[in-house]
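Worked Example 4.2. Consider the chain below.
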Amino acid sequence: MAKIVFWSPEQGTSGSTHTAIAVSSLMGITHKTSGLLIDANSNSKKIASAFTLYDDLVNANSFNDTNLGMNAIMRLIKSNKLSPDIIQNYSKPVLKGRLDILYSAIANTVTEERENLLSMPLIAKNADEVYDLVFIDLPKTTTDDSTIRVLEQADIVVCVIPQEIERLTNVLKKVESLDSLKNKKIIYTLGNYESGSRYNIFNVKLKYKLPEPLYVLPHNYLFADACNDGNILDFLYKNINAPAKDYNGEFILRTTEIVEEIVKTLKIKE
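Applying the procedure from the previous section yields the following structure tokens:
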């Protein structure tokens, strides 16, 4: 039904992967939609290890398993055998019927990394025929045309921006300069957000008159620990009804706001 891309236009700590994990997981928990979260970053283990303990993944040889994740998908593409239903076979269910994840590909060279990313629009197109929502955690750049192609195909771009004035200024200039984002639904999100900063959401809104609403994903060390420990879903379920003023409750509230903006934009009905 729709493709949602999580992306930042420059390298550095923006929190886009954590945002992708939090939003896609909470969407699966709170809405009756089927989703696929794709790790488009070659040689990345952040998404896979957020749902399963890293050591368990290594012991199961999951990262080298050619019958799982993007490695298998790339093999099918090269043999011209990719089809929508096959994508589910090579994805890992983490919320039954609600969320699967597609592990990142192993790339031994820059050329292989580029080939993986160039295939992403085709993979997303096929996945879109099987899943209600396709979430893509995209590499941080504006200079690669393979990245631009994925942005062009997106129905929604969750643009994760830093809470640093110099970097924020540069990021917004880069976003405004991209033709691929013209007339595109953009959900601007301050990643790793600290409400006590001088550059909080209110002051950023005043300084930068963004054409779209501004959201935040708070920095939460317990959420970060859960991602490292492979139990992100336990964290979300445990805190789903936490009070808004609670440390974890605020995180859930802010993530829910992004989820509901996606729901409203796509007119998702329960």
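The domain at 2-266 is CATH 3.40.50.300 (Rossmann fold). The mean pLDDT is 91. Compare this with Example 4.1 before moving on.
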